[in-house]
Each structure stands twice: as structure tokens, then as C-alpha cells.
Amino acid sequence: MNLNILLLLQIAIFIFGGSSVYLISQVLIPVLAKRYEELHRKRAAHASSSLENMFIWVSEKKLILVFGLTPIILGIVFFIWSGKPLLTGAGFALGFILPMFVIRILEKKRKKKFHSQLPDALTSLTQSLKAGLSFLQALEVITEELSPPISQEFALVVKEYKMGVELKQSFESLNKRMGSEELNLMTTGILVASETGGSLTEIFEHLNESIRKKNRISEQLKTLTTQARWQGRILSALPIVFAVLIFKINPDFFSQMVQSDIGRLLLVWCLISELIGAIMLNRLSRIEI
């Protein structure tokens, strides 16, 4: 009798648990899926705007797929590789931030190349103006002779001007997209000269000379701080390399730290301290002008 009652209780618990899981999945999973899609839709819209500023056109649907599938794919890969929930979560988190991280790198490289092309653009503008061309024609020369991204950006300025947008507004938009101190000085000089009738060639020549001097000083500082920067990188990498070597030689060396709560807290604190130290060494070895 007791066995029958116990069996009935087990069946009831199984039915109740299964129905609860089914009901929760029917209610919770669609809500979570909708929130997940909305989150990535917002991120895709922001990423699409950033890519359009770089003259890279990708549809929002494709970006939503990339943002939505990358965390899942990396989570599955880390699970197959490790079989551990913690590393699986790390793979999911990595997939969540990876697409935007790649876009940020592309933006940084594009801006860096644009700023390196700015002296050549000023030289081209000066020569074109001295040859008797108008300022708009001088901008068109840049779009034809120089390579992207600076040719694309100035081509957009020319296009906006021809469509009736004020030159001031076009250059303010350019400065907002590719903002730097040198570009801001160039934009200010152009606007002041257009309002007061000053000599653009003189402004561009002085600005070009100043930018090239600044670039030379920056390269010299970069050369002088090379040793300090490499020392910082080596010191940051040494603890990680040491830990990996010890783990390869004796996998049980860290078992006490991994298995105990205090040990895991100490490992987390070590990682945080390592990250803080690496950031501080990088900041201390960098000189900006």
C-alpha cells in the first residue's frame, strides 16, 4: 500500500513538474525571446548608423542576425570545448560584445587614417587655390586625387553643398563624424575666411605646417616611449604566462584555489588587479600632445 502511494506521489510530482515547466516555457520563453530580439534590434540600429558613417552599408536585418547569433554560436563553441557552464557563459558574453568591439576598431582605424591624410588634403587645397580654382573645385580635387576615407568625407561635403546645405553645417557634420583638434582648426579657418574674406591659402599653409610638426613630435615621443610600453606589456603578461606554465606542469597546483570559495575569490581579485595594473602601465607609458 505504501509503495502504491509512493508511486502515485512520484507520478503526481512528475506530472506537476512537467506541466509547470511546460507552462513556464510557453510563457517565459516567448517573452525572453522578444526582449532578446528588441535588445539586438536597438544595437543593430546603432551599429548600422556607425557603419553608414564609415560608408559601409549593411542592412539592419543582417546586423540583427549577427548580434543575435554570435553570442549563441560562441556559447555553444565554448560549451563543446570546455563542457563547463562558467566558460559557456564567458563565451556568450564574448559573443555579445564582439560585434560592437569590431565596429569600434574599424571606426578607430578609419579616423586614424583620415587624420594622417589631413596634411596631404591641406597641401592639395593650397595648391588648387593658388592655381585659381574655387574652394568647391579644390574640394573636388581632393575627392578625385586622394584615397578613402578622406576622399569619401569631402565628397559628402561637396554633395551636401550642391544639394543646398550650408557649408558651415556640412563641415560641422564632418567634424562631428571625424572630430579632432586639427580638423576643428581647419573647419574654423574655412568658416572665418568665408565670412571675413581672409586668405585660405595662408591659413592652410600655417595649419599644414603645424600639423606636420605635431606629427613629427608625436612620432618622436612614440619612439622614445617604446621601451616603456614594451616593459608594461611584458610585466602585464608575465603573471598569466607563469600561471599557464604552472598549470601545464602541475594541473593540481591550483586545485585548492579552484575548489574553495576563498580561493576563487582570490583568483578573481588577482584577475582584477592584473587588469588594473595593465591599464595603469599603459596609461603611464603614453604621452599625448
Compact overview of the structure:
With 289 residues, the protein is mainly α. The chain has eleven helices and no strands. It has helices at 2-53, 60-82, 85-130, 135-145, 150-162, 167-178, 181-196, 200-224, 226-249, 255-259, 261-284.
CATH topology of the domain at 113-221: Receptor-associated Protein
Number of helices: 11
Give the DSSP E fraction (strand runs of 2 or more residues). under 5%
Subunit organisation of the chains? single chain
The backbone outline, from C-alpha atoms, is: flat
In round numbers, the mean pLDDT is 80
Structure commentary:
The chain has 289 residues and is mostly helical. Among the domains are: 113-221, Receptor-associated Protein (Up-down Bundle), CATH 1.20.81; 225-284, no CATH class. It is built from 11 helices and no strands. Helix 9 packs antiparallel against helix 11. 13% of the residues are buried. The mean pLDDT is 80.
How is the topology of this model organized?
Layout: H1 2-53, H2 60-82, H3 85-130, H4 135-145, H5 150-162, H6 167-178, H7 181-196, H8 200-224, H9 226-249, H10 255-259, H11 261-284
Helix pairs in contact: 1-2, 2-3, 3-4, 3-8, 4-5, 5-6, 6-7, 7-8, 9-11
